[in-house]
Amino acid sequence: MSDKPVTRRNFLYITTGTFTAAGAASLVWPFVDQMNPDASVKALASTEVDLRPIAPGQSITVLWRGKPVFIRRRTPEEISEAKAVSLDELPDPQDDSARAKNPEWLVMVGICTHLGCIPLGQKGEYNGWFCPCHGSHYDTSGRIRKGPAPTNLEIPDYVFLNDNTIKIG
Amino acid sequence: MSDNYVPKSAVGRWFNERLPLLDLIYGHLMPYPTPKNLNYFWTFGGILTFCLVTQIITGLVLAMHYVADADLAFASVEHIMRDVNYGWLLRYIHANGASLFFMAVYIHMARSMFYGSYKEPRELIWIIGVFIFLLMIATAFMGYVLPWGQMSFWGATVITNLFSAIPIVGESVTNWLWGGYAVGSPLLTRFFTLHYLMPFLIFALVILHVWALHVPGNNNPEGIDVVKGSQDTVPFHPHYVVKDLFALVVFLIIFAGFVFFVPNLLGHTDNYIQANPLQTPEHIVPEWYFLPFYAILRAVPDKLGGVILMVSAIAILAFLPWLDTSKVRSAKYRPLYKQFVWLFFANTIFLGYLGAQVADGMYLIMGRIATVYYFAHFIIILPLLGYIEKTKPLPKSLSEPVLSKEEKEILASGATT
What we know:
The complex is a heterodimer of chains A (about 170) and B (about 425).
Chain A lengths: L7 H26 L5 H4 L4 E4 L8 E6 L2 E7 L2 H9 L11 H4 L5 E5 L10 E4 L4 E4 L4 E3 L5 E3 L11 E5 L2 E4 L1
Chain B lengths: L9 H9 L2 H9 L3 E3 L8 H20 L9 H10 L4 H28 L8 H23 L4 H12 L8 H9 L6 H29 L19 E3 H26 L29 H9 L3 H13 L4 H4 L11 H21 L5 H28 L16 H12 L1
Antiparallel strand pairs in B: 1-2
């Protein structure tokens, strides 16, 4: 630090500079924020799905926030297969009960956690999902078993409004 | 301007030796010699540059949300106003920015007229300025069409129909402009494209405008030649950087006043009604900044004549450096011109007032008189004044008019010894 005295001029420089910087920053924000999801997009942020038409062993894909969501009514074999796996075998260990609130219904975002492609259903070495882009194999619980994907298929926030309806988001 | 500018940092020196860009910017913004007596009317060049950049930035952002289609345009503008984060702010800045841009450009032009800045050796600066003004008119008009409200639609209809006044090929030209047989989607899409392009052309012309300005240097309120680097000039920085910034802050306060308190004052309510090709609003008016020219258009009872006169009213500006035959620049030293130029400004504002009225009865007659006077100023008064006006003696330097008698004597004695 120099031992020069603090002058009135120093004070004016610093206050002017600070106000200019704060003003400029607050002016920049609207130009940045305008690119964020707008009110019309946020209004579509949740999707309700009627589950009645889906029979065991069937899947549907619904659109939620512009992304595909897989809803699969799993067969008893698939459920037992998912539950039987030891967590030690999994690259991203997660129990099946943590992935399906109701074991019969598996709800997942249908986007490969590798680079964003949509995996194909009931394909691959683990009878779950298989991503054709770079060969990631997921099991009947949507957990990554083999291939380049780092994590399991994402589970969105959802609630059962009643036995036949779920609300995603 | 700066023959030996050396950047302080090593990276700066490395860059500048290979591309003297910093040198160029430095020369034009820092030591550039500027007359020491420039008043606040000279700050509008900087304010206008700010306006142009603001319009480009907000426009770029609005274009991210706007849809140029006759069925979707109006709704997309409402979407910007209601849904997009800060969309209301960005659109109000852009819409009011256009108005303030014109306010500033009219003051800038009036300053040039009052102090004779367009005269030798600055004719080309003025002519480039006229082209910038023309592009601004085209850009503003097309921009006003984009929200696709009633005023947008019918403004576009009326203005594009001006081309139908051209003999023989008029109809083909309008159909070509429309891309159809009436104003509709094809016109909207091409207007959007051109509205996006033109500000960049303006920007290029502004660079030429400033480049041409920095050859002879600024005119000044006394209108006399100053020797660069003499006692009559000061470096642009810090003197005029600070003065320009202060003026800009005052301008921004007014700007913010419009945007935050009366954002729709300068617009027209009818433009919040979606375009309806089956119904014209009862009273259609252009934006305020076009009103004087609109009054001239309506003053003539002939379709082609009106169009020609309106175009001439702008085109005649380009010939101003030669229509004004006086060698003295500043109105301060031209007692007659000083009165006539004020009369011209008042007449132009009066034309603007008439442009907003219904073209009928007294308004029409007054419009004709004011139109005749507008042109008479350029083709009769200005050429004649140069011959009949007895101008006041010009000062020898910028200091002379502000010095007291004693100071002048000291200077004179100092000069002789």
